[in-house]
Design a protein that fits this description.
heterodimer, A: mainly alpha, elongated, B: 876 residues, two-stranded parallel ribbon, globular, disordered C terminus, magnesium ion binding (chain A)
């Protein structure tokens, strides 16, 4: 417990609450007793059905980024980690790092055009025409790409996102 | 210890022998390595690392002359190296899966890049390796330390030299730092846990080894205390978060309505907290002491209901108006006695009253300004418009949303915002018929001004009329006539914003700008109303003071007659006891002001709640149930459900707070009332918002406006303390009520305290300090300091702007350069093609120059490759 408090931004009560939430997802899978640290992971289908994530267009990415196996199946630790990063207390840089990973759909450590297109289509539910999508993506790269390699690296992304007025207020999930 | 040294020496000797054997080969390696081009230096170092011992030995041999300790540290160093290497190898093995994956990826990217030559691929690979090493560097280094420490540990703590101790201490501190910053590291949980456990073990193991003898004990004690303190802090933190109320309620609202609606409720909670503290101040330092230790009810005229009102002093209607018993209680200024010290505690009541009044204002200023500063810090200075699209893309989704309907709205609003931005980007919107819009805007502003003036006049008129009614006696008038002022103010506050909303439709502004105008207008309306109200009150105060003068005269006559009457009968009788209820008394304008404010707050609260019930709840019920038998779809069509009006509600809250600040000095019960009001409205509005409002269609940014609201709060705070301070400073207090009765000004209480409660020298110092000759230079100094700070901040801003500009120009230059390079590459490509086509002929013609030709071909292919790379690069 103490260790978990050191590793996350949560207090004891919050961790217990999170554990309850985790357990509520699949009471038959998750044991009540975590003293001997059983290796339990919940499948993405369960994680993604949480009301906090259910309507989020990036829920699959979030689950993938924070799960250890990269496929959205989460252990309790991953689960805590996820909500710790998305909590209010997490610093801007940490949030920026994970936001970058979430938007990096193909895991190549760069936000390239296809990533941006996917992001945009998820945000607007494919309601923009192809031309519009392309234009917006070009604009984004044009704005944020500082080293001119035609894609956004983590540094570019951080440089851009830390100046955004809304980032901290929108990139968090309360639980 | 000697043995230890012996052993060490032997080990060293052995190693040196070993080293000598390898030295020659190592040196060769080294030379070779040095010859290699810089690019491969990394690999070279690795190889050298592989020869770790060899290298270390080499070093050692050079240092042979130096003493043993140096040799030892060197040995440590080399050992470290080898261990590092081993670790790396282990890690490489451990991460083989990841490694192969990465390699595959590399391969892919190379394929994507097609023309990238081998060398580049290699560097990429290396870079990746380097990165991996870097990412795990911290972890690694910590383990290294541990290894080293184990060694040191073997040699028993007593042997530690001061430097080593220093080092150890540093490492322990580093570990501790790591523990405290671990939560901010972007590592997966498992790794975090592992590192944490290791660091904890490490710290535990070696913390005791630090220090010697006594100091060691002390150190251990210190460490223990530190641990206890940490635990206490953590518990306190837990406790603090457990104390924050309504967390779940707000969370639920957040998930349904997004962050903007929730920001209102967070603001409400914040307000509640402030009012709690104000309430604690007034309750603890003013109301409770007076109620417990002051003279009891009925002992003095100011503490008794006058005979004329006694009959209906307990009627609900009177109490509701805060007359009768409520008026003569601790709730209002007039009840307090001017006795300097009360009770067995010798509590200085008047002083406390005054200081609490000042403290309320001071505390409010402090909190508001501090919050503003914090908000400004968190903003990150996102004022430039250079990342318009990026921000839209990466920050427009509100992760708090957990409700399908809100999510739908959010998707729609994001789409429209993108479309708008695209439109704006494509063409700066052309104004069709600019004259018409201008005319309409002027007209709209004119109408709004008319509204403002009309509402101001209405309030003035009503207040004057109510004074007339008050003079004639309230009983002869109907309920409406008695409550006219408050009702008119509340109704104006309710309907004028709607009117403004209609008017703003004329103006055809962008919604965000329209919102700002709307807010500004409502602000002006409220402010105007409040100030007209205050001016009318001032008139009334003057009236009351005239009345008071007349009464004072009458009073002396009455007293004289009383005494004369008794003196005639019996000159030695004990002083006559007239029941306090029968003694004539002044009008006590302070209580009147307090009453007005309390009534205003109550009626304002009532209107808010009633509007909520009728406007939201009843509407929702009607829409919901009439929809079954109506000719059009009520839910989607005209009345529909109402949206939650964030800005209007926030403004209402701010003005309410302004009234509290204004009236709190004359009615100590106001903060308590406000706490009650906020508490109820928290529950009521939470319920209303969840059951009868729909998510907003157009969601505005919640943040950024935070400071806007705060700035409004600050302005209101200033404007509301202004009249309060004015009355305190300029108008003499009533002669027979309140804690300052009998003084010529309220602040005389400070003077009095200084004279009688503090030693003489303190009063002298104070009088010197308040001398204008000292105060003026001090003020001047402050002004100068402000000026200086402002100018420096301006220059910083300038520098910031310039840097930004520089960055931009550099960016553009870079782009240009790449373009130029690409152009050049394309030309090269053409040339190369030409050369290519010419080449065979050349070959046929000139067999002898084959050698040179091959060289040329090589260069040509080189050009080709590079130009392709450039073209590909450009495309991306």
């Amino acid at each position: 417990m103490l260790h978990l408090q050191d590793c996350t931004f949560f207090t004891r009560k919050e961790i217990l609450r999170l554990f309850d939430r985790y357990r509520d997802l699949a009471p038959q899978l998750v044991p009540l007793d975590y003293t001997d640290q059983p290796d339990v992971r919940l499948p993405y289908e369960l994680i993604g059905s949480m009301p906090e994530l259910k309507d989020n267009p990036f829920r699959q990415r979030i689950a993938e980024v924070f799960s250890e196996d990269g496929e959205g199946n989460m252990t309790l630790d991953d689960f805590l980690d996820m909500f710790s990063v998305l909590s209010e207390m997490a610093p801007r840089d940490l949030k920026a790092y994970y936001a970058f990973k979430i938007y990096d759909f193909n895991n190549d450590d760069f936000l390239c055009k296809s990533d941006l297109e996917k992001t945009l289509n998820k945000l607007t539910r494919n309601e923009l025409t192809e031309d519009e999508v392309r234009m917006v993506c070009e604009k984004v790269i044009d704005e944020a790409d500082l080293d001119n390699d035609g894609r956004l690296s983590l540094e570019d992304f951080q440089h851009m996102i830390v100046r955004a007025p809304d980032f901290l207020s929108t990139f968090h999930i309360r639980i | 210890r000697a043995k230890e040294k012996e052993r060490k020496k032997e080990r060293d000797r052995k190693r040196r022998r070993n080293v000598a054997r390898r030295a020659s080969s190592a040196r060769k390696e080294g030379k070779e390595l040095e010859d290699r081009p810089g690019r491969e230096e990394r690999r070279g170092r690795k190889k050298r690392d592989k020869e770790g011992k060899g290298k270390g030995g080499e070093d050692e041999r050079q240092e042979e002359v130096k003493n043993d300790t140096v040799a030892k540290t060197l040995k440590n160093f080399s050992n470290e190296n080898t261990r590092k290497l081993e670790q790396k190898e282990i890690e490489v093995v451990g991460e083989e899966d990841g490694d192969t994956e990465e390699k595959r990826k590399n391969g892919r990217s190379e394929k994507g890049g097609k023309r990238e030559d081998n060398g580049r691929g290699e560097t990429v690979e290396k870079k990746q390796k380097k990165k991996r090493v870097e990412t795990s560097a911290e972890h690694e280094s910590s383990e290294e330390e541990e290894d080293e420490e184990e060694k040191v540990g073997e040699e028993k703590p007593e042997v530690l030299s001061p430097e080593e101790l220093e080092k150890l201490k540093e490492e322990v501190d580093e570990r501790k730092k790591l523990i405290s910053t671990l939560r901010g590291k972007p590592w997966p949980m498992r790794k975090k846990l592992l590192t944490l456990r290791e660091s904890h073990e490490f710290v535990e193991k070696y913390e005791g080894a630090l220090g010697k003898g006594k100091s060691r004990k002390l150190y251990a004690y210190k460490v223990m205390m530190l641990k206890k303190w940490m635990k206490f802090q953590r518990d306190f933190e837990n406790f603090k978060t457990a104390c924050v109320p309504w967390e779940m309620k707000i969370k639920e609202i957040e998930s349904h309505f997004g962050s903007s609606v929730a920001s209102y409720f967070i603001f409400l909670r914040w307000m509640y907290g402030i009012n709690m503290i104000l309430f604690g101040l007034t309750f603890g330092l003013v109301m409770v002491p007076e109620a417990l230790m002051g003279r009891p009810y009925g002992s003095m005229p100011r503490k008794t209901v006058p005979r004329a009102d006694e009959a209906n002093a307990m009627d609900f209607a009177v109490l509701w108006d805060f007359g009768g018993y409520a008026q003569y209680s601790v709730l209002f200024y007039g009840y307090y006695n001017s006795q300097r010290a009360i009770g067995w505690l010798k509590f200085r009541m008047p002083l406390s009253y005054f200081l609490v009044g000042v403290g309320t204002v001071a505390y409010s200023y402090m909190v508001v300004i501090r919050t503003m500063a914090r908000n400004a810090n968190e903003d990150g200075g996102g004022d430039n418009n250079s990342f318009n699209f990026s921000w839209k893309m990466f920050t427009s989704w509100d992760y708090l949303i957990g409700n399908p309907e809100t999510a739908d709205n959010k998707f729609a609003s994001i789409t429209t915002s993108f479309k708008e931005a695209i439109l704006e980007e494509q063409e700066s919107r052309k104004d069709d018929n600019i004259h018409l819009t201008r005319f309409l805007r002027v007209l709209a502003n004119f109408l709004v001004l008319c509204c403002l003036a009309g509402s101001g006049y209405l309030i003035y008129f009503v207040v004057r009329r109510s004074q007339k009614f008050a003079l004639e006696g309230l009983e002869s008038h109907s309920w409406w006539e008695r409550n006219e002022v408050n009702m008119v103010m509340s109704l104006l506050g309710m309907f004028c914003p709607m009117l403004f909303d209609v008017i703003s439709a004329l103006e055809n502004y962008h919604p965000r700008i329209a919102l700002q105008w709307q807010l500004g207008r409502i602000f002006a309306l409220f402010l105007g109303n409040l100030y007209t109200f205050i001016i009318a009150l001032m008139d009334e105060i003057n009236l009351k003071r005239e009345e008071e003068e007349v009464l004072k005269l009458n009073m002396t006559i009455w007293e004289a007659s009383l005494y004369n009457g008794t003196l005639g009968v019996n000159s030695t009788a004990p002083p006559i006891t007239v029941h306090p209820a029968d003694i004539p008394r002044g009008p006590c304008w302070e209580t009147m002001v307090g009453q007005e404010f309390v009534r205003l707050i109550v009626s304002d609260t009532m209107t808010t709640y009633i509007t909520l019930l009728i406007g939201d709840f009843l509407r929702a019920v009607l829409v919901r149930f009439l929809n079954y038998c109506w000719c059009w779809d009520l839910e989607a069509g005209f009345p529909s459900y109402s949206e939650f009006d964030v800005s209007g509600n926030v403004l209402g809250l701010i003005f309410n707070q302004g009234m509290i600040w204004m009236g709190a000095f004359y009615a100590p019960c106001l903060p308590a009332l406000n706490v009650l009001r906020l508490h109820v409205s928290m529950y009521l509005q939470c319920w209303a918002v969840m059951c009868c409002n729909v998510p907003q269609e157009r969601v505005f940014k919640a943040s950024g406006s935070n400071n806007f609201y705060m700035a409004m709060l600050l302005v209101i705070l200033f404007l509301s303390t202004l009249p309060a301070i004015y009355t305190i400073v300029t108008i003499p207090p009533s002669f027979d009520c309140g804690p300052f009765s009998g003084k010529s000004r309220m602040f005389d209480v400070i003077q009095e305290t200084l004279e009688s409660d503090f030693p003489a020298w303190f009063g002298k110092v104070f009088s010197y300090a308040s001398n204008p000759g000292l105060v003026l230079p001090f003020l001047l100094l402050m002004v100068l300091a402000i000026y200086y700070l402002q100018s420096t901040s301006k220059s910083y801003k300038q520098a910031n702007l310039e840097l930004k500009k520089k960055l931009q120009t550099q960016n553009e230059e870079n782009k240009k350069k790449t373009k130029m390079a690409a152009l050049k590459a394309a030309m090269d490509l053409e040339e190369a093609q030409k050369a290519w086509s010419e080449a065979p002929r050349q070959q046929r013609n000139n067999n002898a120059s084959q050698q040179s030709y091959t060289g040329e071909k090589n260069t040509v292919t080189g050009h080709l490759v590079s130009s392709f790379v450039f073209v590909w690069y450009l495309k991306i």
